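Table S2 (text version). Query chain:
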Amino acid sequence: MDRDRSELLLETVLQALQERQPLTLVGSGSKSFLLPVGSAQHSRLLSIGEHQGIVDYRPDELVLTARTGTSLKQVRQTLAQHNQRLPFEPPEYRGQGTLGGAVASGLSGPARPWRGSLRDALLGVRLINGLGEILQFGGKVVKNVAGYDVSRLQAGAFGTLGVLLEVSLRVVPIPAVCQTRVFTLDAEQALVLMRRWARQALPVTGACHLDGRLYLRLEGAEAAVLAAAAELGGDKLADNAFWSRLNNHELEFFSASGVLMRQQLAPAAALAPDWSGLIDWAGARRWQMQTPDGKTSVESEGPPALPFDHRYAITQCREAGGDSLLGEYQARIRRAFDPESLFNPELSHADSAA
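Corresponding structure-token output:
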């Protein structure tokens, strides 16, 4: 089944290359809101959603390899049978997310500062490049140091570097205890506390400030979590599902009318005087909702806030007036993998126009 589906995908790519017909890659479509509206003219849809199944899972080595159309739900359930999980908490968005979509978008959850991002967990990939070749990068073991770390370039590439067929990821054990503490304080006080706690050996794996409350997630051995909870204080939140709702944009904050704005900043960056929004990742990621009248407080230190669409992942460095050399390297890497701009041309065009 794997070989047949891989061959079908390869045949489609070779035919498109011969006919010079661009391909728009799609999995389940759960992250379509991240991409520009519409697609390139004359582009053909290439679905990866049927390329499913777990190829290799070694619980004792903490490594999983699966086809990119495999649902995140299936991956999560398989890992849970061995008391394990993905360390980077990929958002599932209505439960429809796929493993390939998680890698393509590069999105990670609230634990990123403490457990690392998707990119940190990515060990190897198998893909079809823009020349119609099946290539494999990286490996299926955690201690893999052979060659260049090319596989991690796929994290956040949105399919512009090739058709992902399989990915190998590092997994981690599920912690024995998870507890969320809640503190009533304003955003400025929350930032001060988060910076202080970041310098301490605490089992923190999530920090979020919203509506005058600081939510702090503690995970690990029971003794460590209980000791940290006693030291930090606050009130215990009965429902730890808060973090899943935050990660999947299911909190009431994300359903308000307006344009959702995202800003990536250093944890120590100052807040705007009239700040009103959500702070995630220990202050490194900030969300605001721009109301229909255009009012929002985004005048804090750092790059301007961007609408939460494909631009934050594809062209943030140049939209924000950042490092143009980084953009040049990105374009050169794309040409090496896909010289004919065969894959997701709407993203290639959006990138080159930035």
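Notes on Table S2: The longest helix spans residues 2-19. The first strand starts at residue 23 and ends at 26.
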